[in-house]
C-alpha cells in the first residue's frame, strides 16, 4: 500500500542463544533510531491480541422491516444477472513473503501444524485453497542456491543497514519444497511474485524453480506489486507512467518466453494497481490486455477501503475506530469498494481473463482495533467477498501480516511463546471458511445479489445456483439487538416447488463488536492463543420445515448473524466434512505448534491418507504422549524443532505491515 515503503524497519538485537524472541517494530522515517522503538511483539500488548471492544452501532431509525420475502427461481435459466461460475476457493489469503517462516514453517520438513489445519478446513469444503506468498517484499527477493547458515529464507545482511529500504530477502529452493509439501498435505495452490524492482536485472529464479517444484499448483506469477505507487515510493522516477509499466512488463514477457526453464509461459498476473495513483483503465488504455494476452493468467488489482496510518505511523489524521465502525456494517460497504472495478470485471470477462482482488483487508497500516478483529468484520468480509463474486471477480485474497496488525485472519504466537500458546484466529478466517461453503466444491456456483428487503443495507441476501439449480441462500443481519426485536424472518418463496425442509448453518456472535467466541454452525476457534487450527465444539445444523403448499420456507436471522440455507442435503453434505482432515499437534511440550513431517513420507504420500498418526509424523496425541514420557521416537526431533524454530524465527523475523 501507499505508505509501506516510506517506513523504516528496525530490528532489535538478537539473542538466539537462548531462543528468545526478537522484538521487531516499524517506525516512520526520522524516528528509526533511538527511543521511538516500541515493543510491537511484546506479549499480548501486540496489536494482534488487542482487547479493544467498541460499542455496536445503534439500531437504525427507522429499523428495517423484520419480515420480507425472497422470490426465487429454482433453475438458473430463469434468472437474469447471475455471476460467472465461481469456485469455493474464491476467498483466499495473501501472506507477506517475509513472514512465511512464522506462518508456514521453517523448511520442507518443519511445517506449522495450525496452518495445515486451517488450510485443510477450506480445502475439504472448497476443493482447494488459494494462497499468495508475496507483497512488497517480493520485489527485491532473490532465489539463491544456499544460505551459509542453512536457513531457507533470510534478510539480506548486505542491504539491511540501509534504513530507508525494505530489507531485501534471499531464499532457497527449500521454501518452494515447503510450499509443495503443504500442497500435498492440505491442498494449497500458490500465487508467487517475480521480483520487479529492476527489469534490467531480472531475477527469474522463482519462476523457474516455482514451476519445476510446484508444477500446476503454481497458479500465477504476479509481475509488479502496486506499480502505480512505485514513483511515490521512490522505486522509479517521478514520471513513471502506465506506459512505462507496459514496457517493463513486455521486457519480462520476452525474458520468460526466451527462458527454457520456464516451460509454462501464460501464468503472469498484472497490473495489480492499488488504484492509488492510477486507475485500472489507465493501464487498459495502454493496450496491456491484447499485447500480453498470451502471457496473462489473470488481471488483478489491490485495494483496502481505508487506512489506519495516522494511528500506526503518524502518517495522516488519526481516525477514531468507534466512528469508523458503521462503515463496515452495511451492504453498501462492499458495493462502494468495488464500484471502481465494475468496468474492469466486464473488460476482463470479455478478454476471457479472471479478475482478482489480489490483496485486501479492512484497512491498510494494520487495520483498526475493535473493528478488524471483531465479528462485524466477519460479516463485512463475507459480504464483500460475495459482492465481488456477484460482480464477476474471480477471487480475492485477505492479507496476513505479523504480530503488529489487528486484521490477521490468523496469527501465529510470538516466537518465544510458541511452546505454550497456540494461534489466534480472526474474523476474516471465518469469512473465508464460510465462503468456501457458500460456493462449494463444484466450480459451478453462480451468485446473485437479491437486493433483499427493498435493498435495505442492513439485511442483504444472495442466492446461489450450482449446476444450474438453486442450491443455497445467504442471509446477513448487520444489526446488534439482544432483545430479538431485530431478528428478521426471510420467507424464501420458490413457486416451482419448495423442499419439505431445509438445513441452516449460522455464523454468530452476541454482538458485532465481540472479538472472541465467534461460532460457525456451533463450532469455534476460540479466543486469543486458543486454536490449533481445528474447529472445536459440536456441529449444530438447524432443520427448518417448509410449507409445501405455499412453497415457502421461513428463516430467522438474529441480529447479528449470517445464515446459510441449504436447499437439499447434497449441497449440505458436500461442504460438511464428516471426518475433518486434521493434523493434531504433538504433546511434546504442552502445546507445540510444530510438526515434524518426514520428507520421505511426504514424497511418497498420495494426498492426505495414511499420514495422520503415521509413524514418522509424530503428531498423534497418544504417540507423542508416550514419547514425552521418555521413550525414543518422535519426541526428540519435535522438541529440537521447537527450539530451532524459536531461534530461527527470532533471527529471521522481518517486520511487515500493511
Ligand atoms: C517474550 O518476549 C517479549 C518481548 O521481549 C517479552 O515482553 C515477553 O515477556 C516474553 N515472554 C515470555 C513468556 O518469555
Ligand atoms: C529443516 O530445519 C531443521 C531445523 O533447522 C533442520 O534440522 C533440518 O535439517 C531442515 N531440513 C532441511 C531439509 O533443510
Ligand atoms: C533490486 O533488488 C536487488 C536485490 O535486492 C538489488 O540487488 C538491486 O540493487 C535492486 N535494484 C534496484 C534498481 O534497486
Ligand atoms: C471502461 O474502460 C475502458 C478502457 O479503459 C474505457 O474506454 C471506458 O470508457 C470505460 N467505461 C466506463 C463506463 O468507465
Ligand atoms: C454504510 O457504509 C458506508 C460505506 O462504508 C458508509 O459510508 C455509510 O456511512 C454506512 N451507512 C450507515 C447508515 O451506517
Ligand atoms: C456478470 O457476468 C454475467 C455474465 O456475463 C452478467 O450477466 C452479469 O450481468 C455480470 N454481473 C455484473 C454485476 O456485472
Ligand atoms: C466465550 O465462551 C465461553 C464458554 O462458553 C465463556 O465462558 C466466555 O465468557 C465467552 N467469552 C466471550 C467474550 O463471550
Ligand atoms: C510431496 C512433496 O513435495 N514432498 C517434498 C517435501 O520436501 C522434500 C524436500 O525437502 C522433497 O524431497 C519432497 O519431494
TrEMBL record:
Chain residue ranges for the region called Disordered: 607-630
Key words of the record: Hydrolase, Signal
GO molecular-function term, one example from the UniProt record: hydrolase activity
The UniProt record lists the keyword Transcription: no
Organism domain of life: Eukaryota
Domain Beta-glucuronidase C-terminal: 461-564
Stored Pfam families: Glyco_hydro_79C (PF16862)
Protein name: Glycoside hydrolase family 79 protein
